[in-house]
Write the structure tokens for this entry.
Amino acid sequence: MSLNNEMIQEKLVAKFGDQASQFATSYGMLSFESPKEINLKVLQFLYDEPGLGFTFLTDICAVNYPDQKGAELVVVYHLHNLKENIRLRYSVSTPLENTDVYTATKLFESANWMERETYDFFGINFVGHPNLKRILNVDEMDYFPLRKEFPLEDQTRIDKDDEMFGRG
Amino acid sequence: MEHNHITLPEGSIEKTTTTLNIGPTHPATHGVFQNIMEVDGERIVSSDQTVGYIHRAFEKLAERRPLYQITPITDRLNYCSSPINNMGWHITCERFLNVETPKRVDYLRVIIMELARISDHLICNSIVGVDTGAYTGFLYVMQYRELIYEIYEEICGSRLTTNIGRIGGFERNFTNAAFTKLEKFLNEYPKVLKEFENLFTRNRIFMERTQGTGGISAERALNYGFTGPNLRAAGVDYDVRVHQPYSSYQDFNFTVPVGTTGDNYDRFLVRNAEMWESISIIRQAYEKVQAFKGTDAEVYHADVPEYYLPKKEDVYTKMEALIWHFKIIMGEIDLPKGQIYSPVEGGNGELGFYLISDGGRTPFRLHFRRPCFIYYQAYPELIKGGMLSDAVVTMSSLNLIAGELDA
């Protein structure tokens, strides 16, 4: 019998109880959350448990929700079971003051650069990562540019000197 | 004078290996890549890559743009097959907005995407040829990439960074000139591809250079997040076009070529085989497109007034069209709330778009899953213990595109 979203949810609830929460399905993909302390346990369970087999890590990225106090940063994992061809979205949230999240590099070799990118742009401190340094930005940078506290320039600003831009 | 000799750094006399810096700009790397290698003679002991030289902050830029303005950003990811990126983005938006596209649009898209795949694989394979010392094939097939670019030009007016199509379909119907050029391509290209294969596939020098170099097992490839031809060369038949069909790929007959060893030679063979499949898909799609007659043959976009720009003459003469035109151009249309991950099979692997919307006019967050960023991590493992000149071939056979890598 092929795997479906309800079966995945049942298995996760049976294993983690209340800690796996916020189950939702959007555009056919199941998503859920857990406390960040057990992220490795969840990933390992999804990887090893017979009948789940989420052994392919599609993507790691982060999102900054400045209005969610105490859970401003969210790390999102996209996992894929290639045999059953089913995808899953799993996320953990972390406050701005303490951005420690355990690294998934022991489980997935591919997580290495994905986590470095996430660190580079959001400042998530992946605990246990073998080489957590900036990857796309310069090493000297002292802020995390994809956080919402750095808005892009207002396109309607008028305090620019047009002559400097050849439009004088 | 007591010190009349040069002071060497500590440990440099005892050191038996040489540190070699290749790049960021180097004629052998075909893009902005830096590699710092530790070599023992010509053997690579270890290496470390630096990336990010052409990082342009696409994900940040996308947070300020309405959907249609993000298309030109996607052009600049994998610029050897930008139509696939464009279509991937449109398909993401359409899935997100629950827009149903007409079949004719799907088939036209398939034609464009498969042409882009051919031009992508063509560059990659012929560059592998160049790096093994055979320039002829590269120059020869360039004519046909040129022809593909001319087809793009007939459809959208530009060649490399195409910005082709719109949310819901295409900006205009394909012209007869475009179809004539497509027919010319379908008639002439198979012979050229055959000749290209004859030059390389059983060429002794080429085989010796590529077989057994840069290989990876299927398990390691999966663990490293390989997708696309590189994963298939290792023997895993994962193809987004089959596993999660988009743009009516389920209507086409094609096989997914796989290799066994995942080395440079297998990657070359898989790409060549994929080009044959692409030609066959284009033929099928073209037949299906031709089967539309009368008004059906005029359909080139879905009916989505909120996102698809009205015709220019309507904008000048009709109130409603003018309103939609203004709203679309000014980005006044709010997106629904939600999030979606939508993948397509890009030239070098699974290109994914992770779009989060909070109900505003622009994405709240947009993340690109860029296949070559993920599999480039495996490069030190692929080249370790090999010869320096093989590392160059491995790099080109991975089909690394700096624009996609650095986003």
About this structure: Helices of chain A lie at 5-16, 39-48, 111-122.
